[in-house]
Amino acid sequence: MAGSIWLPKEEADFYRLLLTFTGVSNPLKVIWYALQTELDRSTFKEPVWVVPSLSNSPKEYQLPEDASTCTCDGFFARHKCIHIAAAKFRSRMEFGMR
Ligand SMILES: [Zn+2]
User: Fold this and answer.
1) What is the pTM of this model?
2) What is the CA(9)–ligand 1 centre distance, in A?
3) 39 or 11: whose pLDDT is higher?
4) Is position 31 within any domain?
5) CA-CA to 15 of 20 to 30 Å: which in 29, 46, 83, 89?
C-alpha cells in the first residue's frame, strides 16, 4: 500500500492495540509517557508500572504488571487510557513480546 510502512503482523497488531487503548489522537504522546514509565519492583507487593500523570494529584498512576487496568478517570469512563498504552509500550521496549 502506498504511503504505509511495512511491519510484521504481530508488530502491526501490537501498535493497533496500543492506539485502541490510548483514546488520544497523537501517538507521540504515548511515547512521551512510555519513556517516563518504569516497572517498580521495589515493594514486597506485585511489581507495578508507574506512569506519570499530567495533573498534580495524583502525580502518577500505578498499574498492574499486565497493564490491564488503571485508576484514572479516563479508564473509569471509557475503559481505555494513555497510561495503559504507555505501560504496554514500555513493557514492549524492555521485554519485547510476551
Ligand atoms: Zn489511566
Assistant:
1) 0.81
2) 27
3) 39
4) yes
5) 46
Confirm whether 4 is domain-assigned: no
- Is 24 a domain residue? yes
CB-neighbour burial class of residue 25 (10 A; exposed 0-12, middle 13-18, buried 19+): exposed
83 C-alpha to center of ligand 1: Å?
4
Instruction: Report pLDDT digits (tens) over 1-10.
Output: 556 667 788 8
Cα 50 to ligand 1 centre (Å): 11
Which residues have their alpha-adjacent CB atom under 5 A from ion ligand 1?
70, 72, 75, 81, 83
Check residue 63 and give its pLDDT: 96
Is 1 a domain residue?
A: no
